[in-house]
Structure formats: structure tokens, C-alpha cells
Amino acid sequence: MQASDIHAAALTDLIARLCGPAGTGESLKAISDGCEAARAAGLGQDAAAMARLDGATAGLDPILRESALACVSGDLRRYLHILTMLDNVLDLAPLEGLNQIYWSMQRQLFLMRMDLGSVPNFVAEHLFPFYERLLRQMAARLGLVPVARPADQPDTGRVVIVTNQFLSAEHQPSRDLLLLAVRLQRDLGRTVLVLNTNMMPDRYYSPFVPPFAAAVEERLSGEQTIRCGGERIRMLSSTIPGITAGKLTGFLSAVETFDPDLVIAFGGSVIVADLLESAHPVMCVPTTSGQTVSLADIVLDFGGHTPPVGNSRLTQSWRPSRFGLSLRRTGETATRAEFTLQEAEFVCVVVGNRLDAETDGAFLTLLGRILDAIPQALVLFAGGVESLPGRLAADRHAGRLRSLGHVDRMEALMSVCDLFVNPRRTGGGAGAAQAMAGGVPVLSFDGGDVASVAGPSFLVADEAAFVARAVALADDPTLLAEARQEARSRIATVEREGADNGQLSAYMAEAVSLFAKRR
Hints:
Layout (H helix, E strand, L loop, with lengths): L2 H16 L6 H16 L6 H10 L5 H12 L3 H12 L6 H16 L11 H21 L15 E6 L8 H16 L3 E6 L25 E7 L2 E7 L7 H14 L3 E5 L4 H5 L6 E4 L12 E4 L11 H5 E5 L23 E6 L3 H4 L2 H13 L3 E6 L5 H6 L7 E5 L4 H5 L4 E3 L7 H9 L4 E4 L3 H6 L4 E2 L2 H13 L1 H22 L2 H18 L1
Parallel strand pairs: 1-2, 1-5, 2-4, 5-6, 6-7, 7-8, 9-10, 9-12, 10-11, 12-13, 13-14
Antiparallel strand pairs: 3-4
Helix pairs in contact: 1-2, 1-3, 2-4, 4-5, 6-7, 13-18, 16-19, 18-19
């Protein structure tokens, strides 16, 4: 089938889906599937086809239409249209819908689905100001007035850590948060209160495509005490859905009662922490690379060591320091037979929680080139998946592309792997760190968490270099052994940087000082 025929079929299908029902999660999922099919077919680069799609959907819900066309094309100008529309009704639109749209945009940016060149500096100049306006709307409509401690009061030695989402010890950012809390209490002598706010949408409030809803751990509701690293960490959680005055005033009241010296936003766009910035010093600890949206006095880096461009608030708050990743070191190893692997095979592994989206057609094609060039190679995929196994089964290398699903024994798996292969994505840093700790070298393009963790020695410039590097490691045992040792050395350096308590204390003190100057 010729490209024009493929585009025509994808276009006809997508128009039919967009003009059909869109009021349920199932219908939005069907529309999203149509958008992904059109994107994969290259419809976004076909100007004539996009013009037809534009005209055929002109009368649809504008959020549905613009987000769908953005999904197909990756064009951030579509998101600008949405932000402009929302600004015109910002005082009238439901907060839950506004929040849904904001997080859905952030999700697409995180998944690297958007063309950042279509609107340079989109985050700093457009999305960040919209986030500030959204917070002001929340505060005004819900009567949120955080109470500040009177100036010149003595320190209390207390710190509040606020997160949008705490799930479990299986969730890397949640483990990292506990690591931070333990360091603050055990090493720095602070008393910590964690607020698990669950402020991301947990259901669909807007017809944005693709729909996004965050997971919520229902067991974590109310007050809990979590034991970690010999410390008892107090946590207050709310699993109430949506944005309500009761939920938010409850968190603000808890902070007022606790009376902290500092609020730490753990992650980007931590709504409750940013609502507190008028009353408390705030420091932000990002959990991923990219431009972090935060109103904090100080925003740490994720290892990129490159400040945001310009002289915006984000640029002024940025500091070149990465907080450490929590690695699991049990010492567990495995034999290749336990994973049905042969001793002579060159075992590549791809690890992630979003492999259905991250292992796209382009990445499978690239892996195919590696398998063509290395007859003894195979690729394992470790992580929860739904659609990926079917796509692997239909691939021409089906027998050498194996989905393992969720793997509990990740350290054991890494002990039988030769190369960590990274798709183009933002996430994956924790998996890469675990691999490198086990002496598994990384193969990645620049950009994203994995590149930040792995460092320049493990990065390549293009697909030809990607394949060539894999071939070189497979063909040369000495080169592979050197890469294994370099991986261990690199992750040891990253861990030392992230474990610098003196630097952490200095940034905390600086945030307090900056707040004192602006209050």
C-alpha cells in the first residue's frame, strides 16, 4: 500500500472516531488509538491531510479537536490555542477540567510526544505562566490563604515534604522521597512531615486526547507512619478525588500546625507546595529531567547541569545539583537458565513502566537493525505492558524480542544482561541506574533521564552510531568488560553527588534566606 493510501485510510478512520461519541473514557481511548495510528502513519507530516483533518473537525469540541490534532502532529501551537481558549474562561471553567488539561499536556511533554521546536521555550513562556494563573484561580475560588509564621521566629527544625503522588516502595519516586525523609531526620536532625496530596486527576474531567489519569493508592488515606531506614516517617494523605476546598484547606491547616522552617516540593508542579510559597520558603527536588515547573525559591536540577535559557523565574531558581536515586542492592544474582537465556547470547534489555508507549515503531525498527547486525543478540523487555507483546509477536524478529512483563528480581535480571538499550524518552533513569550498578553499560541518545544518569560516555549521536556501538560491544569482550567497569564507576559518582548532605543543607538554608528577602 502506498503512503498516500495509508494516509487516506488513517485520516478517514480518525475523522470518523473524532465525529463519534467522546463522552466516556472508552470513547476517548478509541479516539486516542486513532490518533496514534495516524501519527504512526506519518499523517502529521502530510500538510494536505492535516488540512483536511482541520476542516472536517472544525465544529467539534475545541479541546478535543486541538488536543487530537496535537497528538497526531506533535505541534505545540495546538496547545497554545488551548491555553488561549482557557485564559478567556479561566474564572468560569471547572477547576477539575483545567487541572486535567494541564496534566495531560505535561504528560505528553514528559513522554516526548511533542515537537519542542514548534514553539521554542513553550514551558517557560506559556505553560508555566498558565500554571501560575491556575493556582491563583484555585486560591481565589476556594478561599485558600496559607498562614505564615511571624518573621524572626526561631527555627523549629521541622520540614514538610509535599508530593503529588505517593504509591509504594515499588514506585521509584516514592522510594526516593522516603530516602530524602530519612536523610533529613537521621543525618540532618530535622523532623519531617510528608503530605501525599494526590492532586493529579484520577479520572477524566475533560475531553483531552489522549486522556490521562494518575494512579491513587487507596490504602494511603489519612495519617500513617512509615518505617524506613530505621526512621519513623509521618505522612498525611488524601485520596479524595478532584480539587475541593476541604481537601486543600486540610493540607494548609496541617502545615500551619506543624510550623515548618521549609517546604520541599518533591517533583514538578506540586500544587500544594506551590500554594504555600507565599507563606513559607520552598525548595523543589525534581524527579525527572526536563524543565521543572515550580514556584519554589530554589529548584534543583536532575543532573543536566544546564540552566533554563533566559532570565525567567525558572532560570533564577535553578541550582546545579541532583538528588540521589535510591537503588536496591540485595546482591542477588541469577543464572541465564533462570531467564531461559543461552550463555552465548548477547542480551540487551529495555526497562520501563511505560513500554507500550516508549517502544514505538521507530524503536523496534532500530532494534531490528541491531539484531540484523548481531546474530547472537536478543532483546528483553522488562516492565508492565498490554499492547507490546502483540506487536513483538508480529515483528520479523519475534523470536528474539521477548517481553518479560513486570520483573520483581530486577537486580538478578541485570546480572545476566550485557547492554541496557534506551528508547527516546524522558524517563527510565532508575532502570539505567540499577543496570549500571550491576555493571551493565547503557546505550542511549542524548536527552532524558537515562542520558542524565549515564553521562556522555554512554551516549551516541544518531541511529548509525547506536547500532555501531552495540555491534562493537557484542564483538569485543575486552571493550565490553571496560564498559562494564565504567558503568559501575559512573553510577558511584552519581550516587556520591546525590548523597552530599552538606550541599543539601546549604540549598535548604539558601531557600530560607531567599524567602526572608521576598516576604
